[in-house]
Amino acid sequence: MYDVAIIGAGPAGASAALFTAKAGKKTLVIDSDQSITKRAWVENHYGVEEITGPDLVAIGKKQAAKFGAELIEGKAQSIEKLEDGFKIVTENATYEAKHVILATGLMADLAEASGIETKPGTEPRIKTVVKADAEGKTNIPGIWAAGTAAGVSVHTIITAGDGAKVAINVISELNGERYVDHDVLKS
Ligand SMILES: Cc1cc2nc3c(=O)[nH]c(=O)nc-3n(C[C@H](O)[C@H](O)[C@H](O)COP(=O)(O)OP(=O)(O)OC[C@H]3O[C@@H](n4cnc5c(N)ncnc54)[C@H](O)[C@@H]3O)c2cc1C
């Protein structure tokens, strides 16, 4: 049983996985390698002068893996409620996790196939998003949404930030107190 399963390894999903894995949570990331970010040339991501989308996505996955996140290539087809968590069904395997974060970008099919409420998108060219509150909670307790899939503005700094925000909320729920992840510069 994983503490957190994250569906999608674009900026939102990989950023969430970086935080949950670094917090010592058993983290699984399932990704179907269809990130729109791979078509981007990015010059407006704070702190990064310029970077290709493919490089940004690759570095994000590497950061999450560095802290122990398990990255699986595949497509999650449905999420089923279990007594103490959820079962995530992919083409050729099933996984179990206490919490699930949907960071599926433009794609709402998994949410719709799993009884998670969606609504029309309000950002340009975004058709459907998951209905999520300001913390990232959906209509099913334990299932969260982040990034483009949660209806935020479609920019890497914002979707990555939203992934981090939702991850901190999930970690805080697992720990029973607010979580902070600060490293100090060694003098
Ligand atoms: C041409 C182009 C140029 C852009 N230029 C910029 C720019 O200059 N600056 C900027 O800030 N932003 C830019 N963007 C936007 C940027 O890519 C998005 O803002 C954003 O980062 C999307 O992040 P995300 O993690 O929400 O979604 P994505 O990066 O799309 O990631 C979603 C991931 O979820 C996976 N997934 C979906 N469903 C499933 C499933 N059922 N099972 C498993 N995996 C699944 C997909 O394979 C994908 O890898 C650009 C986008 C495009 C298309």
What are the SSEs and their pairings?
Blueprint lengths: L1 E6 L3 H12 L4 E5 L9 E2 L8 E2 H14 L3 E4 L2 E7 L2 E6 L3 E9 L6 H5 L4 E3 L7 E3 L12 E3 L10 H20 L12
Parallel strand pairs: 1-2, 1-8, 2-5, 8-11
Antiparallel strand pairs: 3-4, 6-7, 7-8, 9-10
In words, what does this structure look like?
By secondary structure, this protein is of the alpha/beta class. The chain has one domain: FAD/NAD(P)-binding domain (3-Layer(bba) Sandwich), CATH 3.50.50. The protein is 27% helix and 27% strand. The strands form 3 sheets. Strands 1, 2, 5, 6, 7, 8 and 11 form a 7-stranded mixed β-sheet that branches. Helix 1 runs parallel beside helix 2 and helix 1 runs parallel beside helix 4. The model has no long low-confidence stretch (mean pLDDT 98). It binds flavin-adenine dinucleotide. Flavin-adenine dinucleotide binds next to helix 1, strand 2 and helix 4.
The hetero compounds bound to this protein are: flavin-adenine dinucleotide
Amount of beta strand: 25-35%
Q: From the alpha carbons, calculate the radius of gyration and give it in angstroms.
A: 15 Å
Specify the overall morphology.
globular
| Fraction of residues in H or I helices | 25-40%
Q: First CA to last CA: what distance?
A: 40 Å
Determine the structural class based on helices, strands and strand pairing.
alpha/beta
Question: Briefly, what CATH class?
Answer: Alpha Beta
Fourth-tier CATH superfamily name: FAD/NAD(P)-binding domain
Number of domains: 1
Number of strands: 11
CATH fold assignment: FAD/NAD(P)-binding domain
